[in-house]
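Colleagues,

Please find the record for the two-part complex below.
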Amino acid sequence: MTDFSYVRTEMLEERPAPTSQTGIVKWLRENLFSSVPNAILSIVALWAIYFTLSHLLPWVFQSSWTATSLKECRASIAAAHGEGTTGACWAVIRERYLQLIYGFYPADSYWRPNLAFIMMLVALAPVLFNSIPKKMMLFTALYPFIAFWLLWGGSIWLPLSVIAGFVLGYVALNVVSKASSELVGMIACAVVPILWFLFFAGPVADIMQGIIPISLESVESAKFGGFMLSILIGITGIAFSLPIGIVLALGRQSDLMIVKVICVGFIEFIRGVPLITLLFVASTLLNYFMPPGTNFDIILRVIIMVTLFASAYMAEVIRGGLAALPKGQYEGADSLGLDFWQATRLIIMPQALKISIPNIVSTFIGLFKDTTLVSIIGLLDPIGLSTNIRADQYWNGIIWELYGFIAVIFFVFCFAMSRYSMYLERKLQTGH
Amino acid sequence: MSAITDPVKGGFRPSMLLYDTRYRSMTIQIIALVGFLIAIGWLVSNTAQNLADLGKPLGFSFLWEPAGYDINQRLIEYNSQMTHARASLVGVLNTMLVAFLGCITATVIGVLVGVMRLSKNWLISRLMTIYIEGFRNVPVLLWILITMAIFIEVFPQPRDFRGEDAVASMSLFDSVALTNRGIYIPAPTWFAGSGAVIAVFLASIVGMVFFGKWARKRQEQTGEILPTFWIKLAIFFVPAILAYYILGKPIGLEYPELKGFNFKGGFYMRNSLIALWFALSLYTAAFIAETVRSGIQAVSKGQTEAAAALGLRQGRITSLVVLPQALRVIIPPMISQYLNLTKNSSLAIAVGYMDITGTLGGITLNQTGREMECLMILMAIYLAISLTISTVMNWYNDRVKLQER
C-alpha cells in the first residue's frame, strides 16, 4: 500500500466572493444593470430624478417664510439668494394656514371643530377596533348630534329634542309591543317620533331654551371651509351611506321583484352620472323638491347628495361582500331556522362587512378626494379657498405653493388610509 | 330561499298577509311600491308647485332658441347664432373627444406603468410606485388645475413667436406650434382623388384582417408560423403609400401660421383640452396600472413555468399564456376605470373646456334659468354614455371570459 491519496484531506481556505458578487456592486448589477435595456432604463430614470430634483429642491428651499405679499416675498428671495432666483413663497401658507384648515370659522371658536374632531376619533374607535367595550357604541350613536351642536352652535335643546324623538320611538316600540302585538309596536315606533318631530320637537326645544338657556354662538354655513369642510362632508357622507348602502345591497340581492327593480334603478342611475351633476342638483334643484317655502342650508344639501352618491357605491361594495360569502353560510342560517332579518343580522352581515372593509375604506378615500368638487358650486373647500386667496391683491398670482400644500395634505390623509386598508386586508386574510 | 309551510287550515285570514311566507313577500312589495310612489308623487307635486310659483313650467322649447355664446373648441360647425341644442351637441362631442383620447392614453400609460412596476429594475419599480401612489392619493380636480397651471406657465405665449429675434420657435420642422393657449398641429387638406387613397387604405385594413385569419388557419393545418407581424405591417402601409404617390399626392397638410397675435390654420387643440386630457390620462393610468399589476400577479407562476417547460420562448409565453389569463382579471375593473374617466371629464368646467357640463349644465343653464330641464338632459346624456360604454365593454368581457360549465 502506498500512502499517497488522491483525495485532499485538509480544507481549503475560504476565499472572499468576487467583488462583482458582493455588496453594492452585486446589488447594482442585479437590480439596475442586469441587461443593456435595463441599464438604459436605469440611466434614463436617474437622469429624470436628477432633472426633477435639481429644479424642485432649490425652489422649495430657496424660499421665503416671512412676508405679507407676493411682491415682498420675491424681493426677499432675490435679496437672500441673488437676483433671478425663483423660490417658493411659503409665507402665504404661514399666513393663511388657519384659513385653509377652518375656512372663515370664527377664530375664537376654533376649539369647537377641534373638539369635534377629537371626539370623532373617540367615536370611531369602537367601530375600528374590537378591543374597545361595546358600550362605547352609545357614544358613537350620540356623536352626530354632539358634532352638529359643536360645529353649528345654537341652542343645545334642538339636538336634544331630536334625540328625544328617537328615544320616544324606542320606548314606544317596547311598551306597545308588550301591551299589544309586535306589529302594532313597530307602527308606533314609526309614528310616535314623526309626530314628535312635526309638532312637538321645535316648541319643546324653545320652551326648554327659555327655562334653561344653554347655547353656543351659532355659526352660519357660509363660514365653513377648508379641510374642516372636506372632512365634515366626507365623514358624514360615508357614515350615513353605510346603512343606506346595506339596505340597497340587500334590496338588490332580494327575491322581491319590485324592491329589486327600485334598488337597481337607483344604484345604476347614481353610478351612471358624475358627482358634479348631483352637486348641481344640490345647489340649484333640491329646494324645488321640497314643499314650497323650504330653504335649507347649502352644506346640508350637499351632504344629502353626497350621501346618496356614496350609498350607491357602498351598495356595490357590500354586494361584492355578500357575493363573496359561500352559499353554505346562507343555507346554514336557514337550517338553523333563522328568519331573513335574524340571518342577515347575525350571520350574513358581520361576515360580508368584514370582507368589504378594505373596499369601504377605498370608497371613503374616493369620496374624500371628491369633496374637492364642491369648490365648483362655490363652497370654500381648500381648492375654493385657494382661488379666494389668489383674489387677494397681496397674493395675486400665487399658484404652486397653495396647490402644493393642498396636494401634500390630501396625499398624507389618503395615503395613510390606503395603507390602513392594505393592513386590514392582510389582517383579515383568512385564506392560505 | 323557499320554505315549506303547513297546509292551510280554514280560509284566508288577513293576518296571513303578514305571517304566511306565501303572501308576505307580496305584501312587502306592495307596501314598498306604494311608499315609493307616494314619495315620488310628493317630490313631483312639490316640484310642479315650486316651478309654477316661479312661473317657469316644464318645457324644452328653450333648446331651440339662439344660444348667444361662443365655444372655442369644437368638432362641428357652430356659432353663437345657433341654438342651445346645437351648443349641447358640440358639448357632447367635446366630452366624447376627451373621454376617447383619455381612455386610449390612459390605457397605454397604465399598461406600461403596470408592467414596469413589476420590473426587476429596482429604480424603475420604485419610480412607478411613487407615480402611482402620488396620482391616486391626490384629488383629480387638483391634478387638472395643476396641469392647466403648468401648461400656462411652461409654454410660450403666441407673441413670443413673432419677429426676427423670436424667443420661441415651432417644433417638428416648423409644423407644430406649442403655445400656452393651446397646440396647433397641421390639418390634412383633401384634394380630388383623396377618396381613392382612403378607400385603398380601408381595403388594406380589411385585407390585413383576412390575412390574419388565413395565416392562423394555415398554422393550425400545417404547423408553419409565418412572420405575420411584418406582413401585416406591410399590408397596412404599402398599398396606401403607393396609391398616395400614384394619384399625385392628393392629401396635403395645412400648416399653422402666425398671423397677428395668434396662430391661424391647422388643427387647434385648446390648452384646456390638452390639460384635461393629460390630467385625466395620468390620473386614470395610475389606477389602470394597479389593475394591470394585480392581473399579471393573479396568473399563477406554475402557468409560466409550464409554458417554459413546453419550450415556448419568453415572448410567446407572455402573449399566449400570461396575457390571455391576465386579461380576464384586468378587463372588468378596467371598464369601471373607463367609466370613471368619462365621468371625471365633467370636471372640464374647472378649466373652462366646453364639454357637455360646460355648455348645457353651465352657460345654457345660467342663461335660460332652466335648471330642471338642463340637469335632466345632462344626467340622461351621461347615463346614456355610461350605459353604452358598460354594455360594449361587458360584451367584450363576455367574449374573452373563461367559458365555465
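Residues 154-216 of chain A form one domain.

Comments are welcome before we finalize the supplementary table.
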